[in-house]
Design a protein that fits this description.
seven-stranded mixed beta sheet; 2 domains; 349 residues; three-stranded antiparallel beta sheet; Aspartate Aminotransferase, domain 2; 14 helices; Aspartate Aminotransferase, domain 1; PyrdxlP-dep_Trfase; alpha/beta
Amino acid sequence: MTDARRRHDPSARGFASDNYAGVHPEILEAISLANGGHQVAYGADVYTEHLQEVFRAHFGETAEAFPVFNGTGANVVSLQAVTERWEGVVCAETAHINVDECGAPEKIAGLKLMTVPTPDGKLTPELIDRQAWGWGDEHRAQPKVVSITQSTELGTLYTPAEMAAICAHAHERGMVVHVDGSRLANAAAALDVPLRAISTDVGVDLLSFGGTKNGLLLGEAVVVLNRDAVRGIPFLRKSSMQLASKMRFVSVQFEALLAGDLWLRSARHANAMAARLADAVRDVVEITRPVQANAVFAILPADVAERVRKRFRFYTWDESTGECRWMCSFDTTEEDIDAFAAAIREELS
């Protein structure tokens, strides 16, 4: 046994990110089953071929999925596929592409992020128009894409009607709509709608579909819903270093996630744990955001947060206010929630 394995406590739970969770046992089983024999590399394997049918069952017959390694890669490939070098992407100021990807969309894709402050992480047609102007002005990056996150970085949700309004507004202006869907499963589960109801059916052109935060070992997918809006994804995926040689091991995970109801079971559970956590501490802390998916935002004094963090990992979202973010995942248990809530209460007292 390695030293690292000796130091690892498999019972430990963190609330810093749903990326902290391990791999769902059904996903691990699928990887193991795909491990026999040889398959053609770079996506010409039987698992990746079948994966197209799986994605089309959720997103419609025109959908086409391109597995990639990670969420930043999915976003960069997606945005490159719908922009020229002089064009820009309108997004919320809090968007992951703006604050958590080390400038990758701008450095790798060569585009301009045109950010808008939002009170709840959500864009609206009116907010989009703060940046969607100046077409034909050679001195200004040309607005081309509206990128929204579902669920948002602040844990809030767009309703299907809100997404449809954004898509219609963007399309009227000749713009394309991209969804960062790293937690799209959590959003669909919370809204109690199919995945296509917050993507294909409301007019989204392409999305970055998340797997890692919902139980995969690794892997996200660029999902094209409007083929007329994109170009060159196979070449962009390769040149962006997102083409897996042994792609079957990414694709089989998505098959296990989406062919049945694993995606929904896992997302519903994570959402339910977040609701349980909010209810457990609501009387002793200020819950600062609506708890709509698998995130809870709350205020903790800095000294209290540091003491609680010695037992449970989590991040302080805003140092100036003491706002913290607590994320729940597919493997968060009721006992985890109760122990975390008890620790918060203990340190507050």
